[in-house]
Amino acid sequence: MDRHKWRSLHHVLRRTSHPINLYLNSLHPLEDRARSCYDSPIPLPSPDFLLMLLLDGCFLLELFRGSAGEGFKSLGYSRHDPIFAMRGTMHSLQRDMIMLENQIPLFILNRLYGLQLNQPDQTGLVARLAIRFFNPLIPTDEPLRSRDRSKLQLDPAFDPLSDTGLHCLDVFRQSLLRTGIQPAPRPWLKRWSNNRRCIADKRRQQLIHCVSELWEAGVKFKKRKTDRFWDIKFHNGVLKIPRLLIHDGTRSLFLNLIAFEQCHMDSKKDITSYVVFMDNLINSADDVGYLHYCGIIEHWLGNDDEVAELFNKLCQEVVFDINDSYLSGLSDQVNRYYNHRWNAWRASLKHNYFSNPWAIISLVAAVVLLVLTFAQTFYSVYGYYWPRS
What is the overall mean pLDDT for the chain? Predict the structure, then answer.
């Protein structure tokens, strides 16, 4: 991609009439701060490191601007450009740019974009461009509409103008959780679980039973109408889960969001909690099939087995504490409902005897026959001991 990165830089320089030294000199004061963002020292001399930031940053900004509304033609690219005009290539680039190892510090992108706009100290504009660029990766069938995007900066839980994001992946994650997740506080469990953080396996990360077991216990599943895929509710035996659209980019999206939450100490594990919860629900293709029947899961993969395998492998070797999950309180409610014997008996009666009209007719006939047999026995005994005079 180096050739295309140089092309994008030449487009920027020609469009803005700026010399390249303007950008390199402006990035120089930020060099130490940028180097500290990486997990290991970068063995590049200062000129090469700054040039790398400039090339990658300008390439990313051109992608953002061209796909977010301005259009690549207005930026000076041909409608036959092999990178900036091909939709298939754009989908591949979106998946590459969301990867944790491909992130560029947000303050570098803000400085480069500010120089192009002759506003070097601007903040927030890159964050909004990034949200629009990565919008097709949102795992719902209702991505953010234009009017919803305009409301993001007004949401107290997420304000792109606050310049609090570390990089574009962080910004996109904040936009996914834009309404904020407020789990019920359980301080005693928090203190008790501080020493129980461990590598998650099926025993330690068990939040909830799988779909098949919950269905047998009488739990109903319904689709919740919201574009916040993580916003799960449970009330009166009904587990309401927002619709989840799974496509070829979903695995990469969740993997990188989980990786970010694992690597960033100050980040909450909200995406990890959601994926672990769904992993618990989905143990087999039958679980996926039933969620699809309920309208909760829609996927573009080969079959239901691939969806089950996707969730079952997402959280391998993940450090996770079930008591620090925003879904732990909801899971407790579901588990209490599951453990109540009357709910299981009622569900068994419904599944076995009221599942179809013929079963209902058979049950009614059996009850009538039992009542008639009881009445015949009663009158036979009654007539024997108290015969008519």
Answer: 81
CA 224 from centroid of its chain's CA atoms: 15
pTM score over 0.85:
no
Report the pLDDT averaged over residues 40-57: 93
Rg (CA), the chain: 29
Instruction: For 191-201, write each residue's pLDDT tens digit.
Output: 434 444 444 44
CB 326 within 8 A of CB 273: yes
pLDDT digits (tens, 9 = 90+) for 263-316: 887 788 899 999 999 999 999 999 999 999 999 999 888 889 999 999 988 888
SS (H, E, C) the chain: CHHHHHHHHHHHHHHHCCCHHHHHHHHHHHHHHHHCCCCCCCCCCHHHHHHHHHHHHHHHHHHHHHHHHHCCCCCCCCCCCCCCCCHHHHHHHHHHHCCHHHCCCHHHHHHHHHHHCCCCCCCCHHHHHHHHHCHHHCCCCCCCCHHHHCCHHHCCCCCHHHCCCCCHHHHHHHHHCCCCCCCCCCHHHHHHHHHHCEECCCCCCCCCCCHHHHHHCCCEEEEECCCCCCCCEEECCEEEEECEEECCCHHHHHHHHHHHHHHCCCCCCHHHHHHHHHHHHCCCHHHHHHHHHCCCEEECCCCHHHHHHHHHHHCCCCEECHHHCCCHHHHHHHHHHHHCHHHHHHHHHHHHHCCCHHHHHHHHHHHHHHHHHHHHHHHHHHHHHCCCC
Helical pair 2-16 and 46-65, crossing angle rounded to 10 deg: 80
Question: Which amino acid type is present at position 357?
Answer: P
Statement: residue 99 has pLDDT above 70:
yes
Confidence band for 361, pLDDT divided at 50, 70 and 90: confident
| Between residues 356 and 130, the one the model is more confident about | 130
Q: What are the sequence ranges of the domains in the chain?
A: 2-176, 197-342, 356-389
353 by Cβ neighbours in 10 Å (0-12 / 13-18 / 19+) ranks as: middle
